[in-house]
Design brief:
Length: about 130
């Protein structure tokens, strides 16, 4: 089962990276290149990818984490944060709580949470790989 876990981990990593390069790409577009109408069109298409690839990545992550040989507290925390980010994304996108959508958006697009998420995944794996 280690092979299955490794393959699923690799797939979820590729998918998470492609899906969430959305955010740094947006920062670069806004602050380095400059925003124009074409950027708006590009990023509205990229947002669809951000959503579908993140959901697919979570699916592979479940397989990866379930069959992983070791389960440490940090890796567990990285899973919880991934799940929360995905949940916030779904709640925001589908406007499940319309009155609270602006708070959910604030949480989901928080840059601190984004970098903490990446940090947890990297540091969490340093002891197991
Ligand atoms: C949050 C997103 C995560 C990503 C993108 C990710 C990705 C990866 C990748 C690419 C590998 C290397 C696989 C290889 O050696 O071929 C790996 C290894 C590993 N990951 Fe993750 N991982 C994540 C979360 C987790 C979680 C939550 C756990 C534990 C519950 C975990 C446990 C492990 C373990 C133990 C290994 C070492 C190889 C093994 O025993 O399977 N990972 N991970
Ligand atoms: C681990 C998973 C995820 C991470 C790390 C993540 C991260 C982010 C970040 C950092 C932003 C802000 C980008 C900006 O400043 O414009 C963002 C925006 C967004 N995300 Fe996610 N996201 C994830 C999953 C999802 C999912 C599953 C959905 C929907 C089902 C989603 C929907 C959205 C939407 C709609 C926006 C645009 C918000 C706006 O209009 O400004 N995200 N995401």
């Amino acid at each position: 089962m280690e092979q299955l876990s490794n393959t699923a981990g690799f797939l979820s990593a590729i998918l998470f990276i492609t899906a969430n390069a959305y955010y740094p790409a947006k920062l670069i577009a806004r602050h380095v290149i400059g925003w124009d109408k074409e950027m708006t069109i590009f990023f509205s298409k990229y947002l669809k990818l951000h959503i579908s690839l993140n959901l697919l990545a979570l699916f592979f992550l479940l397989i990866h984490a379930h069959y992983a040989e070791e389960k440490t507290a940090l890796l567990g925390l990285s899973f919880v944060v991934t799940f929360l980010l995905t949940l916030e994304g779904v709640l925001m996108h589908y406007k499940v709580f319309p009155e609270d959508n602006k708070y959910i958006r604030m949480l989901h697009t928080q840059q601190a949470l984004f970098w903490i998420w990446i940090g947890l995944i990297i540091i969490g794996h340093m002891k197991v790989i």
